[in-house]
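Lab meeting minutes (informal)
Scribe: AK
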Amino acid sequence: MAREESKSLEEAAIRTVIDAITKAVRAKDVEAMLAQCAPDIVTFDMVPPLKHQGSQAIRGLWARTLAAFDPPLEYEVHDLHISVDGDIAFARCLNRFGGTKKDGRRVLNSLRSTFGLRKIDGQWKVVHEHVSVPFDMETGKAMLDLKP
């Protein structure tokens, strides 16, 4: 019973990390988002290059991404599943991200996210994130309008 209780506590702590990231994105607060990440985080995001590594790279990526939108930003997490084993965890979810861009265009994209987390000095931190979207094999176009 103690192992299951401990696992539930760890899952709750990881949900808190994901919730903090969600709130930070909605608030366009890059520093609050980075506070949930390890300094050497690596992401495989939808925008080039293929790999973003380290807090400074992520800071620039998210600052550019969020700057393109007027507030409020929309960011929702659906179907969050968490697996924990010791000091390593994975979380996967479906997301909706978007809002009104500075040019007045409305954008709302469906995404798939996987987070790799490690417990560092007693705190769960994101060490890896992979974001993707399905695409039409015939046209090569991203299918950003699917709904979770």
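Next up, CB showed the second protein from the same session:
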Amino acid sequence: MKWLVLAVGMTFFFATAEAQIYKWVDENGKVQYTDHPPPPNIKHPGQRLQVKPATGTNNNSSAPSRSVAEDRLEFDQRQQKRKEEATKQQAQADENKKKCIDAQGQLRIYTDSPRITVPDGAGGIKFIDDDVRQKKVEEANKAIAKFCK
């Protein structure tokens, strides 16, 4: 018996539930939309708009009808695309982290080593001068600024 009374009461409540929206112009000339009636000091009286609650069915006859399977397929495709994008972003973040660590190591080499040697291409070695060292330090700092965020 309690269930019957509850069901009838809820049916009555949902059947009569409609949203009340009021449209009125305020003293600054702006159009206001509220769920409360306009204040009494408004010169231009507002109008009460009847808004019906949305239903789960699509009443637009020009829209093509879609099946649940088509909706599910589209959802799965969007979800797969998001996963692929997240994977790409993670790979890019990992690559940037590696480049950051490499740039920090290069900077440490160029700032902490008293004399740096590099291969000369003929099987020997040569020392780099301070101008080249400074250029390499600047390049490492640029790479750190770019990849170490």
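CB comment: The two ends are 66 Å apart (CA to CA).
No objections, moving on.
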